[in-house]
């Protein structure tokens, strides 16, 4: 198993290097000059040339990539053109909003989907199975930002129970920060819970037809014990995979929801960098999102080894 883990770690670093190269060169080939955008059309050629030299835009693209990669390895993602501060600090600051939002949404999604998916599999073709299927279809079909707008209309505008948007921070009160993230987390969790419910139901149904589950029933175990002790643990591999993918999707794909609720997160930072043509921030945020997805897939692969003993036997 150690050899398998070392191979996965080597593949992780090779993939990260290839992704960083791809991101930098795609961003470098985008039309437009960031220095000209910052100075405007009335800038003199000398001023424009001086700013291009200061930003390193006068160097060849491969050389700029090497300098950028060395900086990334040392934790230096560059300086934002728009904000005038280090990009690494911007990402850490915005991550303090996006990461709790994604974690809260994943927890809500898991808390809804796994019990509902297991109950639907246990009551196949029954009323509960039909209700779970309806919830899954609606959750997948309805976009998260539209759910967020409905939540704002209901709980903020009509009832006045919760804030419509904004983020007060974590310093004044932890509860106030959680309340500000609750509605965005629900908006993100609805669609993810719909997908996870379907995956969980299918996985449990497939495992319930296996020989070891029938043997457990034949030994006298009740349907409930056979389900939760034997079927559900062995059905968790596709569920864990989906949870890992959902977590990365919620961090990288929360752009619309963060803009609906006016949250200062990574998604909103990426949107602002795109509109302001801040190449340094754009490529750093995209690199962070890509590294997060690759690392999460790596952790899910490692988790397989501990969930499924057959994989450990194959590795030996």
TrEMBL record:
Domain ABC transmembrane type-1 positions: 95-298
UniProt membrane topology term: Multi-pass membrane protein
Stretches that traverse the bilayer: 9-30, 95-118, 130-155, 175-196, 239-261, 281-307
Record's keyword terms, sorted: Cell membrane, Membrane, Transmembrane, Transmembrane helix, Transport
Pfam families found in the cross-reference section: BPD_transp_1, BPD_transp_1_N
Compartment list: Cell membrane
Top-level taxon: Bacteria
Family classification: Belongs to the binding-protein-dependent transport system permease family.
UniProt-listed PANTHER family: DIPEPTIDE TRANSPORT SYSTEM PERMEASE PROTEIN DPPB-RELATED
Protein name, UniProt field: ABC transporter permease
């Amino acid at each position: 198993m150690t050899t398998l883990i070392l191979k996965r770690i080597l593949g992780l670093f090779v993939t990260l290097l290839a992704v960083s190269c791809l991101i930098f060169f795609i961003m470098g080939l985008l039309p437009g000059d960031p220095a000209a955008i910052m100075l405007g059309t009335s800038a003199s050629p000398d001023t424009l040339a001086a700013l291009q030299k200061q930003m390193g835009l006068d160097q060849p693209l491969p050389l700029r990539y090497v300098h950028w990669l060395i900086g990334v390895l040392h934790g230096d993602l560059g300086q934002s053109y728009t904000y005038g501060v280090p990009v690494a600090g911007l990402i850490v600051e915005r991550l303090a909003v996006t990461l709790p939002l994604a974690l809260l949404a994943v927890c809500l999604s898991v808390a809804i989907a796994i019990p509902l998916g297991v109950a639907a599999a246990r009551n196949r073709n029954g009323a509960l199975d039909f209700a779970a299927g309806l919830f899954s279809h609606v959750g997948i079909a309805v976009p998260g930002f539209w759910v967020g707008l409905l939540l704002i209309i209901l709980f903020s505008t009509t009832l006045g129970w919760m804030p419509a948007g904004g983020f007060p921070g974590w310093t004044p009160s932890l509860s106030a920060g959680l309340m500000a993230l609750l509605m965005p987390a629900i908006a993100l969790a609805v669609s993810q819970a719909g997908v996870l419910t379907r995956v969980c139901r299918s996985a449990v149904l497939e495992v319930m037809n296996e020989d070891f589950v029938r043997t457990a029933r034949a030994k006298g175990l009740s349907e409930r014990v056979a389900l939760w002790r034997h079927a559900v643990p062995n059905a968790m591999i596709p569920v864990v995979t989906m949870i890992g993918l959902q977590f990365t999707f919620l961090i990288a794909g929360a752009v619309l929801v963060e803009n609906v609720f006016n949250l200062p997160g990574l998604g909103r930072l990426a949107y602002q960098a795109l509109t302001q043509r801040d190449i340094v921030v754009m490529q750093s945020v995209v690199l962070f999102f890509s590294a997060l997805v690759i690392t999460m897939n790596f952790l899910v692969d490692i988790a397989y080894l501990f969930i499924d003993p057959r994989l450990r036997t194959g590795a030996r």
